Amino acid sequence: MGKKKEKNIKATEEQFSWHLERLNPMFKKIVCSLGFNLESAKFERESGFDYLRITISHEDRIINLDDCEVVSRAVNNELDEDNKIDFPYSLEVQSPGVDVPLERLSIPAECFDRNETVHEFSVKGLDLVVNS
Length: 132
Hints:
The chain is of the alpha+beta class. The protein has helices at residues 13-33, 65-81, and strands at 37-46, 49-57, 90-94, 102-104, 120-123, 129-131.
């Protein structure tokens, strides 16, 4: 998702850092105004292409494609307003996905036989439980 800028300039790591330092407050303001949390914003280069990757989350539910689209459009509109990034990039908005940390659940002892050892974990924000 996002708009690719049409210039033939390759950015340096210093430019990535400078732009992120300058733009992160704007990203946070936009993302929060739409009801989401800004997890991260970073530039990454893959196969010679530069990507601005913004990761969002929500406290009460899983992020879906529509959420990513809404945030992408809002961020893209603001970035394009004054051509805030002066090198070619593609904007991607994503959820934390499988990188979400596991959280240990407390399970009442009376739920299990006394001789049975059970470990249960859930992935934050997902209805997924793993027993071992």
